Amino acid sequence: MFDRIAGVYDAMNSVMTAGLHHRWRERAADLARLEPGARALDVATGTGDLALALARRLGPNGEVVACDFSEPMLALGRRKAAAASAPVRFERTNALELPYGDDSFDTATVAFGARNFADLERGLAEMARVVRPGGRVVVLEITVPSRPPLSWFFRLWFDRLVPLLGRAAGDRDAYSYLPSSVRRFPDPLGLAAALASVGLGDVRWILTGGGAIAVHAGTVARR
User: Fold this and answer.
1) Which of 2, 9, 40, 101 is the most exposed place for a label (fewest CB within 10 A)?
2) Where in the sequence is the domain holding 194, given as residue range(s)?
3) Is residue 169 part of a domain?
4) Number of domains into which the chain is organized
């Protein structure tokens, strides 16, 4: 499915969020608290927008590894990184079995990808494993607003209009999957508990996008 929608992915993200997804990714990159020259991992990177935001904070001596299981998505990310002369390396991997050693990175991030993990706890545990003690794990995700009128608008937009946009883009099934995946995903409190369960401390989150976007961050405990 992700291979099929790679060509329209960036355009659909901008349409669905009125371009705000870039701002949300910048917020997630800020919460990673990276120092110049650090090493970061972006999991389920898609076409690499969060990876590029991380790279802008690391300077020429830093490194970002951006991984995903969709090669067409990675190909688009590589083009973006080359155009920006960004120190990002794109690799095809399985988020549930990351091929990196323990304590290999200063941060691990995921934007709009954690809800696609076949096993959320295992995916989060892998992210925590590859980050050094004291490093950060950051998760940016869509969440279901609980208060009207935004909850009403969210239901109309995601359950009805987004699948129609997907149909116009040539893949209604993929964009029908989006609202269903959001509704299956834990709420902010539940995701915070999941992050704590894999060994992260000081787990906090912020809500933005009128309550439809949650950015969680936690610190890897000393092992």
Assistant:
1) 101
2) 2-142+186-220
3) no
4) 1
* DSSP SS3 for 4: helix
Is 170 within a domain? no
Query: For 67-115, what is each residue's pLDDT tens digit?
Result: 999 999 999 999 999 999 999 999 999 999 999 999 999 999 999 999 9
- List, in sequence order, every residue forming a beta bridge with 44; answer none if it has no partner: none
Q: Whole-angstrom Cα distance, residue 1 to residue 163?
A: 14
| 56 located within any domain | yes
Distance CA 162, CA 66 (A): 27
Which of 118, 43, 36 is closest to 73 using CA atoms? 43
Whole-model pTM? 0.90
Q: Rounded to whole angstroms, what are the CA distances from 50 to 25, 32, 47, 154, 177?
A: 6, 11, 9, 24, 22
Q: What is the DSSP string of 136-177?
A: EEEEEEE----STTHHHHHHHIIIIIHHHHHHHHT-HHHHHH
